[in-house]
Design goal:
The protein is mainly β and 414 residues long. The chain has one helix and 38 strands.
């Protein structure tokens, strides 16, 4: 055990990510199927606004989720005035701002504000630009609206911010140098991060705002694993989760995680199903994925999935994070017979895989450095280096390259 503690200490001095297999699970379904809705958390409950439902029915209804009963209530909040989907919502100064979106025929600039204490809606000044597929964020301690589009080929340059004292929107000096709609977005350490989105087609680029003498400018950060848009985004501390959406090959299950503290991109556990146009929130450190479009026929669903993150970024000082992440998963777990280890090796890396016991002792080497970048599968048959079967219990899989390390916990049951 002492040696294991030493190993753990060494691990924390390095820069790596622990990836363990998580699972997306169904929780209470919406009363009404909806896609392109907006969702927020207020006082421990989830509020979902609007969206498109079956038969192209645009909604103005609100559903509220209680985690204790795992049920949705459509009677607590009165409907808002203008039906909409592809809208965005946010909690600011204890009120909920519902911005933009579209009907079946028109893109909206309408802004409505819900006061959950008074259980009352009021209208605010319209946005200067009608927009759908935008993001609304708290940036520089103010309420901002970024991106979106007014029509299929009319993307919005202007970034707007709201003055609650004057009840008016003003144009920010910062503009969208790279216009985007249905992008993924987050804010960390007073920097706005933008991922993918539509601009005359799907994009995969990543940008963030950087402070300069004139205020802010934009800096490129690299690319997502593939072009994608119209999924969902949530954020836990510095980790921005990029969930599902549309890709060149259709809807995706893929989850990518961007660590805004270290400007690093990782893969997460895939969604249970591929879909797009979902709403999403984080509540009690769990991610909720709500409704959306599913399948090639864009079926509108009422499914709600919940996930407890198992990805933790652990970073050391003066260590540069890799531009591509080493990805490894082991299954089945627990196993009886043999376990399969899938590994994705980044470009320019070589991988070494070892099996360790709980004392940190190396009992079997599965792969030595020499594999080129790509995807590989390895198997362990529960035998040590002498060919003897090991005892039942907990074992560790060490997946290591020159710059990265992952430790997977597995359980062998005879």
């Amino acid at each position: 055990m002492e040696r294991l503690l030493k190993i753990i200490i060494i691990f924390t001095m390095m820069s790596f990510t622990i990836l363990s297999a998580g699972e997306w699970k169904n929780t209470g379904a919406l009363n009404t199927p909806r896609a392109g809705a907006a969702a927020v958390v207020w006082h421990g409950k989830i509020f979902v606004f609007g969206g498109k439902s079956l038969n192209n029915n645009i909604l103005s209804s609100v559903e509220v989720y209680d985690t204790l009963t795992q049920t949705w209530d459509s009677t607590i909040v009165k409907p808002f005035k203008k039906k909409r989907y592809n809208t965005s919502a946010i909690v600011w100064e204890n009120k909920i701002y519902l911005t933009g979106g579209r009907t079946n025929n028109d893109v909206l600039g309408s802004v409505e504000i819900y006061d959950p204490v008074q259980n009352k809606w009021e209208e605010a000044q319209d946005l200067h630009e009608e927009r759908e597929g935008h993001s609304v964020n708290i940036f520089n301690d103010q309420l901002y609206v970024f991106g979106g589009q007014e029509s299929s080929f009319n993307y919005i340059d202007d970034i707007e911010k709201f003055d609650p004292q004057k009840d008016e929107w003003t144009d920010s000096k910062l503009e969208m140098e790279n216009q985007r709609s249905a992008h993924f977005a987050g804010v960390y350490n007073n920097q706005y991060f933008m991922f993918g989105g539509y601009y005359l087609g799907l994009t995969n680029t990543i940008y963030k705002t950087v402070a300069d003498s004139d205020g802010y400018t934009w800096a490129p950060l690299g690319t997502l694993s593939e072009p994608r848009a119209y999924g969902a985004t949530v954020q836990i501390d510095s980790l921005i989760y990029i969930l599902g959406g549309e890709t060149p090959s259709g809807k995706t299950k893929r989850v990518e995680i961007y660590d805004a503290q270290n400007d690093s991109l990782y893969f997460g556990d895939d969604l249970a199903t591929a879909h797009s146009g979902m709403a999403s929130v984080v509540l009690n450190n769990k991610i909720y994925l709500i409704g959306g479009f599913e399948g090639s026929t864009n079926d509108i669903i009422n499914d709600v999935m919940v996930y407890t993150p198992t990805v933790t970024a652990i970073t050391g000082e003066n260590i540069k994070q890799p531009s591509q992440i080493l990805l490894a998963k082991a299954y089945p777990n627990p196993f009886n017979g043999r376990v399969k280890i899938d590994v994705k090796i980044p470009l320019g890396e070589q991988v070494q895989i070892n099996i360790l016991n709980v004392l940190g002792q190396n009992i079997r080497m599965l792969a030595t450095p020499g594999y080129l970048s790509g995807k590989y599968s390895f198997h362990w048959d529960a035998k040590d280096r002498t060919g003897r079967y090991v005892s039942s219990g907990l074992y560790l899989i060490s997946v290591k390259t020159k710059t990265q390390l992952q430790i997977l916990k597995i359980t062998y049951v005879k």
